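Purpose: get a first structural picture of the assembly so the mutagenesis plan has something to point at.
Setup: three entries, given in the order below. No constraints added.
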Amino acid sequence: MNNFDVAKTIEPRWRTLPRAFYRRDPRVVAPELLNKVLLRDDGRAGRIVEVEAYCGLEDPAAHSYRGLTRRNAVMFGPGGHLYVYFTYGMHWCANAVCGDVGNGVGVLFRAIEPIGNIEAMRVARGGPTRDRDIGSGPARLAQALGITGALDGADLVRNDRGVRIADDGTPPPADAIAGPRIGISKAVDHPWRWHVPAHGHVSRRPSRSAG
DNA sequence: GGTAAGATCAGC
DNA sequence: CTGATCTTACCA
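Result (structure tokens, whole complex):
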């Protein structure tokens, strides 16, 4: 059985996360998203192994910090939708919007472990790539899953655009690692990044202090 | 209208 | 470590 078959066979049993899951503080939702499955309707699927919380008006590193704009509008909507943004002139990245209308909070997907239709993801990534390079980074996983601005605002609960998040029965790790977020220049000290311990598919190894 | 920075990645 | 590449947001 190849990976595509795995997704086709098991997917129907997976339970799509309900709206209530998202309507909470992103610092609560983020660690609970670990080991959940982010998937497309073509069978492409990845287990979420690394996430970061962004906390709206109280978080200088969040896109929503300075209030509603055209780009971050989806973040200020109700939880359970996908917020997709374009950055560095070439990369798409995706978040699960959390909280309630007006909060502007969400969780950035930083790494997935490919588990379904892996060959389609490899192709989407542009050629021969090691499995660990398919989804180990926010822009990499978005490219692997075919997530672009066309999916900004997609409803992860209703699955209105072929993207959703499901629970396949794997619980979140009891010993998730928390630490500072990556690639930001403000609010760098908040430990709002979580990942599955000792997992080969996280975007970076935990940084050792220089000293 | 001009510009600096950006929730990144691939290749040296 | 650095270049790529362009949108966004902010200032004037």
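Residues 52, 54, 61-63, 85, 87-91, 93, 95, 108, 110, 137-140, 181-185, 203 of chain A lie near DNA strand B (CB under 10 Å from a C1').
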